[in-house]
Amino acid sequence: MNPRSERLHVGIIGGGIAGLALGIGLNYRHVSFTIYEAAPGLNAIGAGISLGPNTTRAMELIDPALREGYEKIAIKNRSPEKRHNFADFLLAEPGLGAARGFHGAAVGSKDFVRSGAHRKDLLEMMKSLLPGNDCIRFGFKAISVCQVGKKVQVSFEDGQVAEFDAVVGCDGGKGITRQAVLGHQFPDQVQLTYSGRYVYRGLVPPGKAQEILGKYADDSKIFIGQGRYFAAYPLSGGGFNFLGGRQKDEPWTHSHSTQEVSREDMRNDFDGCDPRLLELLEWAKPLRWGLFHHLSTPTYTHGRIVLLGDVAHASTPHQGAGAGQCFEDALILSHLLGQITDDQMIPAAMEVYDSICRPRAQEIVRTSNDTGLLYTMTHPQCADDVTKIVASARGRFQWIWTHDLQADLAKATEDLDRLRKPA
Ligand SMILES: Cc1cc2nc3c(=O)[nH]c(=O)nc-3n(C[C@H](O)[C@H](O)[C@H](O)COP(=O)(O)OP(=O)(O)OC[C@H]3O[C@@H](n4cnc5c(N)ncnc54)[C@H](O)[C@@H]3O)c2cc1C
């Protein structure tokens, strides 16, 4: 075992994609850690998740076994000629755009290969890469995190207290670690904010989507419309996953992030859309999922406590990039913590992590929100001009997919070395 593991023990709060990715990265770099997950087991809400090439590159660099494991469970676009397509854009109006002479436009790139996985498969595969069951503890809900001298204390709901050299909050958008990092300096930035959009989610059984959508059920599609949109993609085994999104300039006044409504209210939200999309909608639950985000996070770190994943930068799902950022964060932070030989360097390593990951992740939160405006034809520069919408989408995705992670790693090492040297 590498001697560094005895010098540093990291507590990870949350065993979702972010916590598991960090655990895999730390394990690969021989840094000792324990993940504490509030739920009794892996918590896989939602059906599928799509991941871009920046994510698969991050996986490879976190631990080649992670990329290998992912490739075994990954679902690609069905038609080989569409492997570089993120989605075909169509219109949600009756005829899907044909009345305007618009027959769809591909948004993708030669740098992009469409892939995704079932969340459950992804989490299970990731858990299988952790070194034994001791490093992940289920049923441990953290209730407070605070730095005491050179240690960080975490108190759990059952009264237990654990102490670490550093704590990484991977506890999702509403995570308590956000309060520990931002509460003193930026109290008004702790809570999630509502994006002005909500979605209904649906799963269509094998064969049914083909019956409803015909040729449009082949691969990923985004149907854009005035104030509403649908995003749909096939799952392995022939099923179909979709979201119906609605933009309304009204505040979210419900105490939970979901709101049950009647089927009629749900249908009314998509009044005037193509009948095929309305038929698809019948497979959704009449449950509105409010889309919330952390549009502004002034810092990801406070001393020896740091934020990673959605607790740092929860995003709307319009670019399918939120989980990708979890992997990028996990890569950079595990790389930095893996280079620490003196625990005094922990706050400096966290500052370096913040300076590399935060600008990009926060820009992704911003552009994702902006992409929601494109999908709902409410973007100030593009409105309902389909040519402009497609051009804008192509540009923003390319920036996400082609990010140079090796350059980030080199900069992380260089910045940490600079801070390590006495002035
Ligand atoms: C509808 C929708 C579709 C999406 N689609 C995509 C997509 O296609 N591609 C993509 O890249 N991203 C997508 N995302 C975003 C992606 O799902 C998230 O970015 C990602 O799952 C965040 O992972 P996380 O581990 O940071 O947070 P979470 O998944 O929220 O995990 C946090 C974990 O911490 C645990 N926890 C919370 N509090 C505590 C506590 N106090 N103590 C201990 N444990 C705690 C929770 O139980 C949970 O297991 C989508 C999001 C939504 C809402």
UniProtKB/TrEMBL annotation:
InterPro entries: FAD-bd (IPR002938), FAD/NAD-bd_sf (IPR036188), FAD_monoxygenase (IPR051104). Its cofactor is FAD. One of its GO terms (biological process) is secondary metabolite biosynthetic process. It comes from the Eukaryota. Residues 163-367 form the FAD-binding domain. Keywords: FAD, Flavoprotein, Membrane, Monooxygenase, Oxidoreductase, Transmembrane, Transmembrane helix. GO terms for molecular function: FAD binding; monooxygenase activity. Pfam families: FAD_binding_3 (PF01494). The chain crosses the membrane at residues 7-28. The keyword Nucleotide-binding does not apply. Gene3D superfamilies: FAD/NAD(P)-binding domain. Belongs to the paxM FAD-dependent monooxygenase family. This is FAD-binding domain-containing protein. It comes from Metarhizium anisopliae BRIP 53293.
